[in-house]
Amino acid sequence: MMTSVDTDLIRVLADPLRLQIVNLLARETLCTTHLVAETGARQTNLSNHLKVLREAGVVETEPCGRFTYYRLRPDVIAALAGQFTELAATAQTTVETGRKRAC
Question: How far apart are CA 36 and CA 5, in angstroms?
Answer without folding.
Answer: 31
